[in-house]
Amino acid sequence: MKPAQFDYYCPKTVDEALTLLEESGFDGKIIAGGQSLVPIMNMRLSTPDCLIDINRLQDLDFIDYEEGLVKIGTLTRQNRVETSDLIRQHIGLLSEAVPFIGHVQTRNRGTIGGSLVHADPTAEIPLALMTMGGSVHIASTDEVRTVNAEDFFVTYLTTDVMPTELLTEIHIPIWEGRVGYSFQEISRRHGDFALVASACQLSVDDQNRISDARLVLGGVESVPLLVTEANELLHGERLTDSLLDKVASIVSKVIEPESDLHASADYRRHIAQSLAKRTLQEAYVKAGR
Amino acid sequence: MAIQISLFNKKKKIRPDGLGKVTGALKYLTDLSFPGMLYGKILRSTEPHAEIQSISVDQAKQLPGVRAIVTYKDVPGLNGFGLIFPDQPVLCEDRVRYVGDAIAAVAADTIEIADAALQLIKVEYKKLPVIVDPEEALHPNAPRLHPDGNLLHRAYYSKGDVEEGFQSCSHIVEEIYELPRQMHAYMETEGGVIVPEVDGKLTVYVGTQHGFKDRYQLSRILNMNETDIRIVSSPMGGSFGGKDELNIQPYGALLALATNCPVKIHQTRRESVRAGLKRHPMKITMKTGVDDSGKILSHKVKILADTGAYATLGPAVLDFSVEHAPGPYVIPNIEIEGLSVFTNNGVAGEFRGFGGNQVTFALEGQIDRLAEKLKMDPLEFREKNLRQVDSPGPLGQKIAPTSGARDVLEAIKEKLHENTNNSHLSDQWKVTGTGVAISIHGGGLGVGRIDPAGGRLSFTKEGKIEAAFGFEECGQGLLAVIETLVMEEFKCKEDDIRIVVGDTDSVPISGSSTASRATSMVWNSIQRMKETFRDEILERASRVTDLPVNELTMGPNGIWLTDESLCISYVELAEKTLNKPLLKVETSFNFPVSPDAVVDGSHFLYAFSSVLARVEVDLLTGKVKVLDLEQAIAAGPVVSLLGYQGQIEGGGIMALGYSLMEEAKMENGAYVNDNFDTYLIPTIQDVPFVMNVEAIEKLQEGDIYGPRGVGEIGTIAVAPAIVKAIHDATGCWVNKLPVSREFLLEQMATRGEKRWV
């Protein structure tokens, strides 16, 4: 199918883009990589009156290192994120997560910001952002505000970004000390939507006791699910089999998966527990190295 | 100057249609457009089983842009089609039996108008009980879907006494195997353009696997002379058996005749899934027994096939399953019963492998389970029971002597030794395993069936060597086969050849492009024609050049004098012989059949395969990844190397999908997964890293039949090899495809293999 008719704008500056957004209000939609938006428009699930193409805004395509922080421009292609040494070195969880997104061809076009604002509950980048405790900058003609990952994802395909706003930057803190991470995902076939994904990042002290842990599950709720109860339980502990079992039972308790054509609820529950344990253990082993 | 023999390097020749396909320049029949062309759409049933109480097209006819609507009233001839018997209505009158049943067809100025018109056609249904389970269908009280009841076909074979055989067995394995409904998933869905010609004739540009058969079926429906219908049927963007039966042709034809305009119909993927054929889901019960020494004594098989609402080639598929149920093994006591049963599910029919895939899965499963019971190496066990060169065929018939079964087994044994490297596992949750399976697969339609072959070689006025065959280019590489064989035989160049296929007005009768028969029959045809053709052309050249005929040979660009110099080009020769009658050699014969076969459809020429699969199983998630998929094939000489490799690798991947992910599920007669978002087929990420194909080219001395086709053999033994590899890795036997991760996890938990959760 072809998309419904729409007006097309191609701003040259961020300010121009923000003004266009302000003018078009609810009728406008930002297009960047278009890897989710275009299929949705072709299937007429979305019929925006006006598309604002930000692909010319080179100011939004960057990966920068700052004291304790990696800043990524919203327009940065997923492929560039995947292959960036800077990201691999400082926020490696993201490097591990990106290869699970779609296919090489889609990652060449898809952007990091696009994935965040699309907010598919099974998507990898939202899960990684939540796990690493990142935040985003959201700009409008009036202001630029900062929102933490926990407050950014509202529900299924919905974020805190208002129709007149543009997500411009992603800030990801570089954890200090002995840090480990792991990202695992199960789909029926590589490149398809995750049945369940699990990400974990943690730090340990010199006694190998967990000083901070963030375990997050994707695909089990409308937004990435921070398993707070497990994270609290892990604090100050060394990882043992019995602790892993406790985490699994917490996971089983906090999720309510549903059955569909791709997998039964039981299977989803099972792999959520399995992947949670697997990511947790792998992150712990890496941190201890 | 010497002839450059290297020109004929068949080993890496690029297919003649390759460039056009890769660049997108090649036009498929669904790409064609004609002036004044209308667009057709087919209204299909919303009910899997119902009486039609009324059909009202009045409102739809009022819609501006609608040019014609046809229903059963508008079918001038026989309102039915089907390759064996015409039990499927072209347009249903009083009853629908599945959700693909056609009720009306619309031609309009645009696709959108045609679609809108379908919405305005009112059909009143009276729902009837829906039969979705073949076992229920066989119940005496089940509603009858057809006048003769719900049993489409029963096929039976027995020899010896199975029950007595079981008495002498030390180990018996009895299992039930369940095989899914698989989609062909060709890239190009069914479609094309039907054009009414000024002289009252009809040209049908629609992909099919046998143009003449379509012509015959259409002539019955349209009440037209066959010679007034021209079928242009190649190239196709894939078929795999799925376009063997009529699909949209009758609707396009009825609409073209009603409007006197060209009508294009191209089904959407959803329409294609709903109406199109699938691989037969089968439930196979096998009981197999061995004695202490590992000899198989008795083999009892029951096959229940869900053939859906109509026959198409269902009976032949079942016959093939029954024939291949003993496989390449010599078993003294055999009893096989096959039942193909009508239900209100989607129609099942012809699909690459043709019933062989299902029974081979079951049979090789039995073999591996028996080997385990005997504590015998599975390959040694196979070897012990394997057919010899002169053994009769699976149903006791005489077949062309072949060492294929032993050759493929030997080849895979070697591969197994090379492949013992269980590469170290980085991941403590993953295990690997290896499995081997073998298969036998008959070529041609079989004894008792009309199975003509033939071809034509001519020397055109333009100086081309024209090779014409009634076969179709479905993507399998027919053109490459013809080109290679003609070049090899006449030492000419690509440019010297003109290939004619896919047009009933200009090709000879060659039979269908099915049953792994086209390559084999092209080779046989050329063998029959080559000498006459060569003699004739050299004779003409001799007369024109005044050179002695015995010093002339055919070569690149033209006729050569004792291989040293070009004495006359083909173009020149054509020019100088314009006044002569066209040089034309034709042949027609039948596909070779067994001289003493008693069971209809049983075969004479067989190909063999062995498969080595290595898998990695994730113990926590049940996910299976195929790491290596190697095949050895015994099918006679390779004609087109890349084509051969492509068929075996591609067939292997198609079967990998069958093993691990593909199932067209039906609920109450409706497809649940009707597009590729939910019906998953393998992508490049699922393709194993190691995919060696070994071609065993040798034939027995005195074998005159040449290359056997390899279109199907690459799909046959893959699933059992993968499933055995899973067993090797996890200890779990799987009886049902596609392999369910949940089932594996449950099994591993039962066996105490699962480490966590």
Largest sheet of chain B: 7 strands, mixed
Residue share in helices of chain B?
A: 25-40%
Describe the strand arrangement of the main beta sheet of chain B, using strand numbers: 3-5-1-12-9-10-11
Q: Could you say which structural class the secondary elements and strand pairing of chain A correspond to? A: alpha+beta
What is the third-level CATH name, the topology of the largest domain in chain A?
Answer: Uridine Diphospho-n-acetylenolpyruvylglucosamine Reductase, domain 3
Strand and helix order of chain A: EHEHEEEHHHHHHEEHEEEEEEEHHH
What top-tier CATH class of the largest domain in chain A fits best?
Alpha Beta
Terminal CA distance of chain B reads: 77 Å
Number of DSSP strands of chain B? 28
Q: Give, in spatial order, the strands making up the sheet with the most strands of chain A.
A: 4-5-10-6-7
List the helices and strands and how they pair.
The complex is a heterodimer of chains A (289) and B (757).
Chain A: E1 7-9, H1 14-24, E2 28-31, H2 37-42, E3 50-53, E4 63-66, E5 69-73, H3 78-83, H4 85-90, H5 92-97, H6 104-109, H7 112-118, H8 124-132, E6 135-139, E7 144-148, H9 149-152, E8 153-155, E9 158-159, E10 166-173, E11 178-186, E12 196-204, E13 210-218, E14 225-226, H10 228-234, H11 241-254, H12 265-288
Parallel strand pairs in A: 1-3, 2-3
Antiparallel strand pairs in A: 4-5, 5-10, 6-7, 6-10, 8-9, 11-12, 12-13, 13-14
Helix pairs in contact in A: 10-11, 11-12
Chain B: H1 18-23, E1 38-44, E2 50-56, H2 58-62, E3 66-70, E4 95-96, E5 102-108, H3 111-120, E6 122-127, H4 134-137, E7 151-159, H5 162-167, E8 171-179, E9 191-196, E10 202-206, H6 211-222, E11 229-232, H7 249-259, E12 263-266, H8 269-275, E13 282-290, E14 296-308, H9 314-324, E15 333-342, H10 356-374, H11 378-385, H12 404-418, E16 430-442, E17 452-459, E18 465-468, H13 478-490, E19 497-500, H14 518-545, E20 552-554, E21 558-561, E22 565-569, H15 570-576, E23 583-590, E24 606-618, E25 624-634, H16 641-660, E26 666-667, E27 670-671, E28 693-696, H17 718-730, H18 741-750
Parallel strand pairs in B: 1-12, 10-11, 14-15, 18-19, 25-28
Antiparallel strand pairs in B: 1-5, 2-4, 2-6, 3-5, 7-15, 8-13, 9-10, 9-12, 13-14, 16-24, 17-18, 17-23, 20-21, 21-22, 24-25, 26-27
Helix pairs in contact in B: 6-7, 9-10, 10-17, 13-14, 16-17
